[in-house]
Amino acid sequence: MIDPKQVHDVLKAHQLADGFPVVFDLDRSHGCWLYDSRTDTEYLDCFT
């Protein structure tokens, strides 16, 4: 398993990865809250 803080470095080696630097953990996300395992932060999903 890749450390969440290393995900974007690994992706950059294979594809364009210059977007918003989050690593969503779908197991820890719930309802309209998305969990970023890179920063241990929850974000309210206001779009979907």
Account of the 3D structure:
There is one protein chain. This protein has about 50 residues and is an alpha+beta fold. The chain has one domain. It is built from 1 helix and 2 strands; from the N terminus they run αββ. It has one helix at about 5-10, and strands spanning about 35, 40-45. It has a two-stranded antiparallel sheet with strand order 1-2. It starts with 6 loop residues before the first helix and ends with a strand. The mean pLDDT is about 90.
Annotation keywords:
single chain, 48 residues, alpha+beta, 1 helix, globular
List the helices and strands and how they pair.
Layout: H1 7-12, E1 33-36, E2 41-44
Antiparallel strand pairs: 1-2
CA radius of gyration: 12 Å
Low-confidence segments, ≥5 residues, pLDDT <50? none
What fraction strand?
15-25%
Mean pLDDT over the residues: 92
Structural class: alpha+beta
**Helix fraction bin:** 10-25%
In short:
With 48 residues, the protein is of the alpha+beta class.
